[in-house]
TrEMBL record:
Residues 79-126, 220-241 have a biased composition (Basic and acidic residues). This is Dihydrolipoyllysine-residue acetyltransferase component of pyruvate dehydrogenase complex. One of its GO terms (cellular component) is pyruvate dehydrogenase complex. The pyruvate dehydrogenase complex catalyzes the overall conversion of pyruvate to acetyl-CoA and CO(2). It contains multiple copies of three enzymatic components: pyruvate dehydrogenase (E1), dihydrolipoamide acetyltransferase (E2) and lipoamide dehydrogenase (E3). Keywords: Acyltransferase, Lipoyl, Pyruvate, Repeat, Transferase. Belongs to the 2-oxoacid dehydrogenase family.
Length: 564
């Protein structure tokens, strides 16, 4: 049966939209909720999900077209999607001719048979009430996760939504809830192991398994037929807001996962009504963290996000969340390629936008004459090599900064603007920006004041290697009081680093170069190291900043100073 999907209502007074991107192609098999278009109205760029499932037999629009509300966007053959989901409401929504509807009714018998086949297939999976819980999808482009804790053991009675694992992906640690109730028969994964998305991790004996399975698997199909007859009055929005269960990875050729892989950056795990609600109140759904199974976003999640954002803005915490200006259609001017941001990039972008918009930054520049220090560095480098480290200017700076933080406590604090308090820290942890192929990471050398330069050199080398090999733990990236960003190994004269909030200052180091310096009546070549100190002007005054930076410069020029 052919079903026509038309451009839905987009809001008051919106009659047309520009098709930024057609996401599906003829021949694709799609399901309800799959995103099919990205469109741009004069107000925003939005994703349009399909509310029908089936095989795309014809696309009526292409990228760059302008489509009217109600215009046919694509034609679907519903037959291919029957196995996945019945679409009883489509007749009304898509104005399927009555005759076709009748034909569809006649087809109900074979459809039920298919349903039964599907049910028995599923039952086999849950053989004798045994259910294999597989690691669900955790986010776009995440293929596996490190299991940091297994929260259940054999014999435990667990309920649907109970967390069963704690896992870590890139930066975030999350609990994974199970989507069925039962008794744990087998735990197939151990703490410290890596689990792939779709891999069976826990096996449970279902509570009232067979009847529950039968009910849940056959019910929707039969119910759908009945509901069709009843001419339901329930709105689609109401049914959509029910949180869905964790998407199961199936071998089906048109699984949601496969579809998502093709469209990595298009899908927020939310139903169309939640997306619509989010759009209507001006919230970018991609910024909302879903609390439902598998990270599913509910209306409640959107409301909580909106409330928090509102509070932040009203408390003057910043302008994050200000919706981005709509982008032009870059493909008008040439070929483009869209790529999903890595998790690190997303987090870095959000974190730095926050820091940049909240902290009133000032950057103070200075230069240190490290000619003598360089001689010392070369002289002692073998000893540090023997200890397993590398004596670099960064390692020496970590030690100098730890001492400077002791001397200038306003650089070793954080600000609590809610309570109007300053939090002074009595420990001296220094973060180092490390350049990795996945983006910027900032591991932290803890208690740097208690370590000598050799120990710091060894630790710095280890942390930088771990950062580049994706082996840093969350703990190793937390607790920093001040950061150093040394770009001098690459080049550059000066730059203005962004304070790594909630810290209050950061030291940028550029390339040390020999320069003519006027000394004792003549120009002499000296190795000069450019330094940039960015600081939070809410807590640090300009005079404090230059005193701090001068102290650092003098310590580089004469390390003995630190001992005084
Ligand atoms: N001026 C001149 N030379 C420098 C220098 C500087 N400021 N800093 C380092 N060098 C030299 C080192 O002496 C070393 O030379 P040799 O091999 O001849 O001894 C070489 O550059 C490489 O140093 P390194 O990078 O191995 O070691 P490091 O301790 O100086 O730096 C680390 C470690 C992790 C800070 C660095 O590797 C790194 O990742 N830097 C980039 C940081 C970054 O991305 N910051 C941006 C943050 S904001 O976007």
């Amino acid at each position: 049966m052919a079903i026509e999907f038309k451009l839905p209502e987009l809001g008051e007074n919106i009659e047309t939209a520009q098709i930024v991107k057609v996401i599906v192609s003829e021949g694709d098999v799609i399901k309800e909720d799959d995103i099919i278009l990205e469109i741009e109205t004069d107000k925003a760029t939005v994703e349009v999900p399909s509310d029908v499932g089936g095989k795309v037999s014809k696309m009526h629009v292409k990228d760059g077209d302008t489509a009217k509300v109600g215009q046919i966007i694509l034609t679907l053959e519903a037959g291919d999607a029957k196995e996945e989901k019945p679409e009883p409401k489509e007749e009304k929504k898509h104005e399927v001719k009555k005759e076709e509807a009748k034909k569809e009714d006649k087809k109900e018998e074979p459809k039920k048979e298919e349903t039964k086949k599907e049910s028995s297939k599923q039952k086999q999976k849950a053989e004798g009430g045994i259910y294999e819980f597989k690691l669900p999808e955790l986010g776009e482009n995440i293929e596996s996760a490190d299991v940091t804790a297994v929260l259940v053991k054999v014999g435990d009675q667990i309920n649907e939504d109970d967390p069963v694992l704690e896992i870590e992906t890139d930066k975030a640690t999350v609990e994974v809830p199970i989507d069925k109730s039962g008794k744990v028969k087998e735990v197939k994964i151990k703490e410290g192991q890596k689990a792939k998305i779709g891999e069976t991790v826990i096996v449970i004996e279902l509570t009232d398994s067979v009847s529950e399975e039968e009910e849940s698997l056959t019910e929707p199909e039969e119910k759908a037929v009945e509901e069709k007859k009843e001419e339901k009055t329930e709105t689609k929005e109401e049914t959509d807001t029910k949180p869905l269960s964790i998407p199961q990875i199936s071998d089906s050729t048109h699984s949601a996962r496969q579809f998502k892989k093709e469209l990595p950056d298009k899908i927020a795990p939310a139903s169309p009504s939640v997306r619509r609600f989010s759009r209507e109140i001006g919230i970018n759904i991609h910024q909302v963290r879903g609390t439902g199974p598998g990270g599913r976003i509910s209306v409640e999640d959107v409301k909580v996000f909106a409330k928090n954002l509102n509070e932040k803005i009203s408390k003057g915490k910043g302008t994050i969340g200000v919706s981005a200006e709509p982008l032009p259609d870059f493909s008008k001017w040439g070929k483009i390629q869209r790529e999903e941001m890595s998790n690190i990039r997303k987090i870095t972008a959000e974190h730095l936008s926050y820091a940049w918009s909240v902290i009133p930054h000032v950057t103070q520049f200075d230069k240190a004459d490290i000619t003598e220090l360089e001689k010392l560095r070369k002289q002692y480098s073998k000893e540090v090599d023997a200890a397993g480290g590398k004596l670099t200017v960064t390692a020496i700076l970590v030690k100098i900064i730890a001492e400077a933080l002791k001397k200038f406590p306003q650089f070793n604090c954080s600000i609590d603007m809610d309570k109007k308090e300053i939090i002074y820290k009595k420990y001296y942890n220094v973060g180092i920006a490390v350049d990795t192929d996945r983006g910027l990471l900032v591991p932290v050398i803890k208690d740097a004041d208690k370590k000598n330069v050799t120990e710091i050199s060894v630790e710095l080398g280890e942390l930088a290697a771990k950062a580049r090999d994706k082996k840093l733990s969350l703990d190793e990236m937390q607790g920093g009081n001040f950061s150093i960003s040394n770009l001098g190994g690459i080049g550059g004269t000066y730059f203005t680093p962004i304070v790594n909030s909630p810290e209050v200052a950061i030291l940028g180091v550029s390339r040390g170069n020999y320069e003519p310096v006027y000394k004792d009546g003549e120009f002499v070549p000296r190795l000069m190291l450019p330094l940039s100190l960015s600081y939070d002007h809410r807590i640090i005054d300009g005079a404090d900043a230059i005193r701090f930076l001068r102290w650092v410069v003098e310590s580089l020029e004469n390390p003995f100073r630190m001992l005084l």
